[in-house]
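PROTEIN DESIGN WORKSHEET
SECTION A - STRUCTURE
LENGTH: 304
TOKENS:
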């Protein structure tokens, strides 16, 4: 929470700084809008956090953990929509051969080309996301299994692409290569589209109850193999399968167990459930079912 609040304050300052030098550069305008969009993940995280802490009720028996996933989806769709709009605008500007102009300003009695101030601001504002709060969030996200936090930190670490592109665009205008500004704006907007698509896809997958994935949505969640191992280690278990859905920060585990003896009952189910729940704080909702055969949709371990 402290990192997110710090990020909001830092980003608010950078938005004001960029606004003072944005001028008529398309790449600077796009970078400025991206700075404003970057506030979305932090706001989503802080708004969703009180909801995920609520206890289950009769109306919401699974709790409010999905609030984080819903916020992830909202942020992803917003990035995607605005990024597409900016990409179209940049492409149209290039097609129409719009020539941006960057004038001069009087600074402490000296006439200075505004482009140099743009470059200076973009160099300074990238320090925070690239070296401080970006890496910090990426380190924290795996521990919390929070995909919003990871996406936020990952996008922050990649902010230097935006800053570098805007600098290239501004300097391009300065040396007479007017199209570099539009090309830089298109590059930045396509980066926003990529972030939006990636986050929307990950959030939709979780809301559609796909197999639980790790914090970066790249690999299956390690809890799947962990629960398999726990169940197969129990002396009364003959076979076991598991399916896990991602509820936001916590996991909902459904374990299917084929017992060796037909007289297995409540005591064995309690033993298996407690063993799974004790393995990680993320296992907040565990259901163990005795069955004759493992369902096909459940992840089934290969026999040795």
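SECTION B - SEQUENCE
RESIDUE ASSIGNMENT:
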């Amino acid at each position: 929470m402290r990192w997110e609040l710090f990020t909001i304050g830092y980003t608010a300052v950078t938005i004001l700084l960029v606004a003072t030098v944005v001028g008529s550069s398309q790449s600077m305008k796009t970078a400025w809008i991206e700075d404003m969009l970057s506030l979305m993940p932090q706001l989503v995280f802080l708004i969703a956090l009180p909801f995920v802490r609520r206890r289950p009720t009769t109306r919401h028996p699974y709790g409010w953990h999905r609030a984080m996933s819903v916020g992830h989806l909202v942020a992803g769709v917003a990035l995607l929509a605005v990024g597409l709009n900016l990409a179209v605008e940049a492409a149209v500007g290039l097609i129409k051969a719009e020539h941006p102009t960057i004038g001069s300003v009087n600074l402490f009695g000296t006439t200075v080309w505004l482009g140099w101030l743009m470059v200076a601001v973009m160099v300074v504002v990238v320090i925070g996301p690239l070296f401080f709060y970006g890496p910090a969030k990426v380190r924290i996200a795996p521990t919390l299994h929070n995909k919003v936090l990871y996406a936020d930190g990952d996008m922050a670490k990649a902010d230097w692409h935006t800053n570098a592109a805007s600098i290239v665009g501004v300097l391009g205008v300065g040396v007479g290569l007017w199209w570099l500004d539009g090309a830089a704006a298109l590059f930045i907007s396509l980066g926003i589209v990529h972030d939006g698509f990636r986050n929307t896809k990950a959030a939709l997958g979780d809301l559609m109850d796909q197999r639980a994935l790790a914090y970066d949505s790249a690999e299956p969640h390690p809890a799947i193999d962990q629960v398999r191992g726990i169940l197969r280690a129990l002396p009364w278990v003959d076979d076991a399968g598991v399916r896990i859905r991602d509820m936001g920060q916590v996991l909902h585990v459904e374990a299917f167990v084929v017992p060796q003896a037909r007289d297995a009952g409540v005591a064995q189910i309690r033993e298996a459930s407690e063993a799974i729940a004790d393995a990680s704080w993320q296992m907040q909702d565990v259901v163990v079912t005795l069955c004759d055969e493992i369902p096909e949709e459940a992840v089934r371990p290969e026999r040795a």
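SECTION C - NOTES
The domain at 223-290 is CATH 3.30.70.1350 (Alpha-Beta Plaits).
The beta strands are 104-107, 110-113, 237-246, 251-259, 283-290.
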